[in-house]
């Protein structure tokens, strides 16, 4: 195909449930590409000599190579190309904000739509599953060394994946009754069906990983206890599960529930109905998910307050589009200043209009309140979803160095903490971030722990290092 012909192919759009079908269930909204769409989309790739898409992918997936194999009909080969660098392709292809990563760096995006890289990756995984192919890699021969992994989110899953495939005995501890960390309690099933997460844990168990739920490290067991139990190294992948507060009067009234607390309840299976009118505060994907969950649990007047404009919203465009299709309105340039109530229960939210002031180096402008522009909104509930921070319960008996943000302070090359046998990664180090970034840190930590256990230099030749145990097809 000539380059001109490739450029003429429009970006393919996957099938989706209609808005009315969506809001009555938690069924997956986007159903992915069929074979013809996948091949046509793959034909749009220009096979660049310097593939900028790879630089945009936090785990540097070999995107042009998997696309080349896909369009030549080698779907299974294409899948294994992705698997060389990714421990969680089924997850990342669905939930990563591709527009800010690989697709945001694709050259085709300079004059039109980038290649739909996320959907192509998802097609590979869906094809493998639909055609009954094994999607997991071979397990390693058992070694007599134990590693504890605190937190069953994407960083912990990745550390367990790479170390278990090298044969180390891994045990994952999590304080929740469900596995997957933020993948499960932060991302609703309509974006990430639970069977996808469950299959990843089945594969980890298949390689000998022990999984212990409902145990809080720092309360039921300390880090020192883990050491006494024979774990030679510990990985802290505890995420950032605590909500940041708005810090305004009335935040303790009934009817106020913070974003990640709300999502945790909904995603564990509680069907919370917050009333008819619900106000969500924030502009990121958590705020969008909260609003869409409130719709799905019976609130029919849901809207979002965001203190900047649509251009500055950190949420992915696809999620904003779905939200608006489902009937959620966004009130831009507005923020709450007080929550009012009667008899301990919220009934009105006092807000103020904002305008954009000075911009920083990145071009992001500071919202500034407009004097005298206060207004009231009547509501049954408010869900602030402005950010998350790290919960330090697990660190109770350990004097670990923290940053001024409250995240764990680690060596940037090895992710080793201030206590040599403790490593950390994912949101606990980065603050709230994407799944792919957690996976990338999981890979770094797995290599650091391997070297630590084998008495090797943690820093030597890191730039030449390849992930341990990854990408080998199961025989
Ligand atoms: Fe293909 Fe875009 Fe990557 Fe170029 S930058 S190789 S067009 S996906």
Please tell me about this protein's structure.
The two termini are 36 Å apart. A five-stranded parallel sheet has the order 5-4-3-6-17. The protein has a four-stranded parallel sheet with strand order 10-9-8-15, covered by helices on one side. Strands 11, 12, 13 and 14 form a four-stranded antiparallel sheet that branches. The longest helix has 19 residues, at 435-453. It is globular. Helix 5 packs antiparallel against helix 6 (75-83) and helix 7 crosses helix 8. The protein is built from 17 helices and 17 strands. The protein is of the alpha/beta class and 475 residues long. The chain has three domains: 3-130, Orthogonal Bundle (Fumarate Reductase Iron-sulfur Protein, Chain B, domain 2), CATH 1.10.1060; 146-241 and 390-459, FAD/NAD(P)-binding domain; 244-388, FAD/NAD(P)-binding domain, CATH 3.50.50.60. Bound molecules: iron/sulfur cluster (SF4). Iron/sulfur cluster is lined by residues 45-48, 51-53, 63-64, 106-108, 115, 117.
Topology diagram in text:
Layout: H1 3-8, E1 15-16, H2 19-22, E2 30-32, H3 35-43, H4 52-56, H5 63-71, H6 75-83, H7 89-95, H8 117-130, E3 146-150, H9 154-164, E4 169-173, H10 182-185, H11 194-206, E5 210-212, H12 223-228, E6 231-236, E7 242-243, H13 259-268, E8 277-281, H14 285-296, E9 301-306, H15 317-325, E10 329-332, E11 334-342, E12 345-359, E13 365-369, E14 375-378, E15 381-384, E16 388-389, E17 422-424, H16 427-430, H17 435-453
Helix pairs in contact: 3-5, 3-8, 5-6, 5-8, 6-8, 7-8, 9-17, 13-14
């Amino acid at each position: 195909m000539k380059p001109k012909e490739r450029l003429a192919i429009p970006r393919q759009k996957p099938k989706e449930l209609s808005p009315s079908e969506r809001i009555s269930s938690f069924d997956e909204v986007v159903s992915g590409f069929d074979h013809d769409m996948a091949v046509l989309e793959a034909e749009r790739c220009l096979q660049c000599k310097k593939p900028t898409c790879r630089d945009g992918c936090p785990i540097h997936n070999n995107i042009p190579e998997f696309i080349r194999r896909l369009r030549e009909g080698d779907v299974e080969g294409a899948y294994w190309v992705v698997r060389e660098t990714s421990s969680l392709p089924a997850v990342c292809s669905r939930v990563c904000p591709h527009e800010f990563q690989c697709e945001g760096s694709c050259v085709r995006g300079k004059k039109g739509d980038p290649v739909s890289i996320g959907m192509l990756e998802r097609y590979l995984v869906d094809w493998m599953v639909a055609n009954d192919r094994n999607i997991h890699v071979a397990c390693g021969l058992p070694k007599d060394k134990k590693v504890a992994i605190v937190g069953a989110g994407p960083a912990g899953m990745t550390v367990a994946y790479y170390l278990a495939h090298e044969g180390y005995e891994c045990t994952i501890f999590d304080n929740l009754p469900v596995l997957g960390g933020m993948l499960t309690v932060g991302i609703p099933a309509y974006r990430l069906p639970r069977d996808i997460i469950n299959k990843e844990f089945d594969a980890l168990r298949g390689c000998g990983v022990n999984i212990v739920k409902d145990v809080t490290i720092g309360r039921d067991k300390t880090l020192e206890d883990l050491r006494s139990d024979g774990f030679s190294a510990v990985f802290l992948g505890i995420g950032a599960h605590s909500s940041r507060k708005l810090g305004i009067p009335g935040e303790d009234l009934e009817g106020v529930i913070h974003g990640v607390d709300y999502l945790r309840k909904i995603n564990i299976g509680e069907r919370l109905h917050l009333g008819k009118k619900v106000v969500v505060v924030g502009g990121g994907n958590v705020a969008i998910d909260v609003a869409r969950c409130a719709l799905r649990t019976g609130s029919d007047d849901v809207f979002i307050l965001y203190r900047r404009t649509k251009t500055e919203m950190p949420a992915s465009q696809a999620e904003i589009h779905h939200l608006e299709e489902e009937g959620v309105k966004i009130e831009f340039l507005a923020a709450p200043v007080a929550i009012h109530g009667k008899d301990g229960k919220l009934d009105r939210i006092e807000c103020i209009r904002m305008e954009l002031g000075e911009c920083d180096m990145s071009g992001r402008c500071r919202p500034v309140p407009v004097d005298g522009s206060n207004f009231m909104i009547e509501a049954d509930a408010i869900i602030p979803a402005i950010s998350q921070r790290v919960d330090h319960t697990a660190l109770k008996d350990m004097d670990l160095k923290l940053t001024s943000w409250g995240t764990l302070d680690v060596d940037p090359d090895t992710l080793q903490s201030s206590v040599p046998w403790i490593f950390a990664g994912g949101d606990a180090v980065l603050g709230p971030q994407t799944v792919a970034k957690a996976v990338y840190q999981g890979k770094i930590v797995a290599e650091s722990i391997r070297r630590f256990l084998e008495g090797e230099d943690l820093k030597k030749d890191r730039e030449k290092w390849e992930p341990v145990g990854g990408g080998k097809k199961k025989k």
